[in-house]
Write a structure and sequence with these properties.
Mean pLDDT: 96
Order of helices and strands: EHEEEEEEEEE
Largest sheet: 8 strands, antiparallel
Shape: globular
Distance between the termini: 42 Å
Length: 164
Amino acid sequence: MPPIDKSPMDMSYYPNNYPVLKIQDKITEPVVARVIYSRPQKTNRPIFGGLVKYGELWRLGANEATEIEFYKNVKIGGKKISKGRYTLYAIANEDSWTMILNSDTDTWGSFKYDVKKDVIRTTIPVQKTDASLESLAMSFEKTTLGFNLVIAWDYIKASLPISF
């Protein structure tokens, strides 16, 4: 068997902990989204502006490109996104990220990225944090209009608003 990957895959749901709530019969709202991503480690490297180059396409993790699945129609940046599975890319800049939803799934890295398959591009601000995160992390947080996909690593946090 292969050894454990340096950047293991992880998965987050909205609502948070949906599979656990489901088996405990504690579901209060239906599942809306799931993100699957690999969690690279900082390991004393400069991340933003270093490993993740400013202004360049990033697979938003490591290994396979990050995928997000919507179980119902949602809106991102005011645009309707049909339920289904998408690859999620980002272009990081110092003060903002361009988030890209792309229809080409099951791909490794961003080597075969095709701009013609972009479904949406939207720009979101980034925040500096007080504490550094060693591993890239993604989770969902509830908002008044829906939820945010929160992406954090090193001293940076970005939130992609999603409504329904």
